[in-house]
Amino acid sequence: MYRSVPVPAVRDLAVVGARILPVADAAGRRVAPVEDGVLIVRSGRIEAVGTAAEVPVPSDVDVIDGAGMVLTPGLVEAHGHLGVAEDGEGWAGEDTNEMTIVDGAKLRALDAINPAEVGFKDALRGGVTSAVIKPGSGNPIGGRTAAVKTWGRVVDEMVIREDVSVKSALGENPKRVHGEKGRMPSVRMGVAAAIREAFVAAQNYVAARAQAEEDGKPFDRDLGKETLAAVLDGTLIWDQHCHRADDIATAVRLSEEFGYRLVVNHGTEGHILPEYLADKGIDVIVGPLMTARSKVELRNRTLATPAALANAGVRIALTTDHPVIPINFLIHEASLAVKEGLDPTVALESLTINPAAMLGLDDRIGALAPGLDADFALWTQDPLELEARAARVFVDGREVFRYDDGTGMGDVADPFGATRIAEPGRTA
Predict the structure, then answer these.
(1) CA–CA separation, 287 vs 267, rounded Å?
(2) Alpha carbon 197 to its chain's center
(3) Are 229 and 254 in contact (CB under 8 A)?
(4) What is the spatial distance between Cα 98 and Cα 143, in angstroms, rounded to a whole number?
(5) Would you give the distance in Å from CA 418 to the centre of its chain?
(6) How far apart, in Å, are the Cα atoms of 403 and each of 38, 341, 386, 406?
(7) Taking a C-beta distance cutoff of 8 angstroms, is the pair 162, 227 a contact?
(8) 165 - beta bridge partners?
(9) What per-residue confidence (pLDDT) applies to 421?
């Protein structure tokens, strides 16, 4: 499926002749497609984008012919478990949930990400160049999330932002996990109470910390309460796992009680209350959309949810929840949502600028605009078409994936180099 090739050098380059879908400018404003466009990259950043008349090709760059292809920003997985829930590895690669505790605010997904997981190669195959990696949903409070590029050898070198948000869960998962252990929370009231108690304790902690600073006295730090304090002061976003409409309403209620910034994750029944979410100004990461109704709170799952939310004015992103759905199918979630009424322009935005903006990453990723990271994909045709492939994928201006039409394999620039043992179907 994949062949390793040497890591290419970072190059200054120009992509010419492609139909460019910039999605947005550096200020986040929607930008129209550019026919027969030019994209200039220097030192891993986008220098210019526009028509051939607007953007002359410098003589000192490598030129890539994009004629007949479509150029988009690299896709952004807004909610996934790459490297913490290693695909196909079973319990040995399962580091998503620390379910021995109820409040995991002190935990960080960053400490469990394995860049060697095959899901990272799958991401590149699907044009996904960035992902926000989140702890799981077994606890009312799961821990800090991290935004990373999908190519690299050491996670610290892949980081876009080390701390993006805090993952929290309402609904069936936490009540089942802890109820089966015979402890609180075992019902929805208990899950909400656990979150509320944690925030009250964090408020008290913040007050005590401020008093100690004022008095010049030593103060014992608490990693979990420091995390929740960062949510309360707006430094970190609150990523709330919730499927059912009543759980979504509870998520909003808690956010208003404590004044933190809420992003709804999954939002399976978001189509039941789209105007409510729009009026509240709540962003929603929708999905995964292509799953079975494996539990009761998914019984109203529908591919029409993204359109219902977006048409009401809610800013949406889409997710595969990898490895629930293979991450390379992210673009297909958008295609299927378009089939059920989602505007195609919004569909592409839901995989690029929307997740970047709602999670505070739009100063680096999510669009093809001067100053942003040179993360992009060349597609064989409009990426929302079923037949489209990500033919060539670039991260920070470095070509890290190329599809081979002759073999059906993908050439991945192996960040681990020749130090890795060759596997069947791979070159050392």
Answers:
(1) 7
(2) 29
(3) no
(4) 9
(5) 30
(6) 22, 31, 16, 9
(7) no
(8) 237
(9) 37
C-alpha 155/C-alpha 353 separation (Å) is: 23
Candidate from 57-71, 130-144, 399-413 with smallest mean pLDDT: 399-413
CA distances from 370 to 22, 175, 365 (A): 10, 47, 11
Cβ(107)–Cβ(227) under 8 Å? no
Share of the chain above pLDDT 70, in %: 96
Sign of CA dihedral 169, 174, 176, 179: negative
Least confident of 13-17, 92-96, 145-149: 92-96
Question: CA 131, CA 106: separation in Å to the nearest integer?
Answer: 21
pLDDT digits (tens, 9 = 90+) for 258-289: 999 999 999 999 999 999 999 999 999 999 99
pLDDT band at 406 (very low <50, low <70, confident <90, very high): low
Q: Which residue has the tokens 């992902």?
A: 131
Average pLDDT for the chain: 94
Q: Give the single-character DSSP code of 56.
A: P
| 314 phi, psi to nearest 5 deg | -85, 135
Q: Is the pLDDT of residue 252 over 80?
A: yes
Burial profile 112-130: b = 16 or more Cβ within 10 angstroms, e = fewer: bbebebbbbbbbbbbbbbb
Nearest Cα residue to 82 out of 162, 150, 161? 150
28 phi/psi in degrees, rounded to 5? 85, 5
- Residue 203 burial (CB count, 10 A): 15
Query: Residues 16, 17, 19, 24: is their CA dihedral positive or negative?
Result: positive
39 forms beta bridges with 15, 49
pLDDT exceeds 60 at position 6: yes
The answer on pLDDT for 412 being more than 90 is no
Tell me the pairing of strands 165-169 and 141-144: antiparallel
User: Residue 53: which residues within 8 A CB-CB, separation 6 or more?
Assistant: none
User: 359 and 155 in contact (C-beta within 8 Å)?
Assistant: no
Interval 245-266 mean pLDDT: 98
